[in-house]
Amino acid sequence: MPGSASLPLRGLKAVIFDMDGVITQTASVHAAAWKRTFDGFLAARAGPGASFRPFDDADYLRYVDGKPRYDGVAAFLASRGISLPWGSPEDPAGYDSVCAIGNKKDLYFAEALESQPVRVFESTIDFIRRLKDEGIAVGVFSASRHAREVLQKAGVLSLFDARVDGTDAAGLGLPGKPDPATLVELARRLGARPAECAVVEDAIAGVQAGRAGGFAAVIGINRSGPPGFLREAGATIEVRDLSELEMSR
């Protein structure tokens, strides 16, 4: 299992955090919405009474975790050899296009968000407060367009000096992870170069983005995956929880 490690603060101006699964306990909510969406699609495609291979945790980690919604749909469908038209973001939720499937997932996630509280990982919040006490700026990024709502509902929106989310990325025309564009934009908003920032992620796509962007350190939070899978993706540090990570000057 991942062990304890240390993050050197010397030369760091900022640390930027992914939201779902790192700050808020919403990765499982996304995963459940994805499973409900894809299993419904696969069942409808197979036909009445026919068997199908359901969407599982490995599919979530490999194909959709950390990616913009429609990119995740396309990646999962490709993994099953399924081709659908891309469609348009205005497509009604359904199964006729990549965007329709993505919009169905968003509906399921929004329903869950409305019906349950948003919990945070207290160890992450403690780590953020310690960084701020050290004079390190803190930012948050997410592929989700619900990021502001989620952070506000969790009561932690005011902790962050800057934010880049799915709405910002769409407005600026930034590609999603594993492209580093959104992370680089967040570093810019914090007044720092990537080489002066550390990234904290729990998704393969996010770790790959941090490495591709030339960030000083990429911290992988591996809460449930196989030991070492985020290191294999490029994380410089892998821990199960930020309570395991020390800071050093």
Helices and strands in order, then pairings?
Elements lengths: L4 E4 L5 E5 L8 H20 L10 H8 L4 H11 L18 H18 L6 H12 L3 E5 L5 H8 L7 E3 L1 H7 L8 H9 L7 E5 L2 H9 L4 E5 L7 H5 L3 E3 L5 E4 L1
Parallel strand pairs: 1-8, 2-3, 2-5, 3-4, 5-6, 6-7
Helix pairs in contact: 1-4, 3-4
Model regions low in confidence, pLDDT < 50 over at least 5 residues:
none
Count the strands?
8
- Placed side by side, the strands forming the largest sheet appear as 4-3-2-5-6-7
What is the overall silhouette? globular
Residue share in helices? 40-55%
Round the Cα radius of gyration to an integer and report it.
18 Å
Termini separation comes to: 26 Å
Largest sheet: 6 strands, parallel
Tally of separate helices: 10
Mean pLDDT: 94
Order of helices and strands: EEHHHHHEHEHHEHEHEE
Task: Walk me through what this model shows.
The chain is α/β, with parallel strands linked by helices and 249 residues long. The protein has helices at 27-46, 57-64, 69-79, 98-115, 122-133, 147-154, 166-172, 181-189, 204-212, 229-233; strands spanning 5-8, 14-18, 137-141, 162-164, 197-201, 217-221, 237-239, 245-248. The chain has a six-stranded parallel beta sheet. Strands 1-8 form a two-stranded parallel ribbon. α1 (27-46) crosses α4 (98-115). The longest helix is centred in the first third of the chain and has 20 residues, at 27-46. The protein is globular and about 60 Å long. The model has no long low-confidence stretch (mean pLDDT 94).
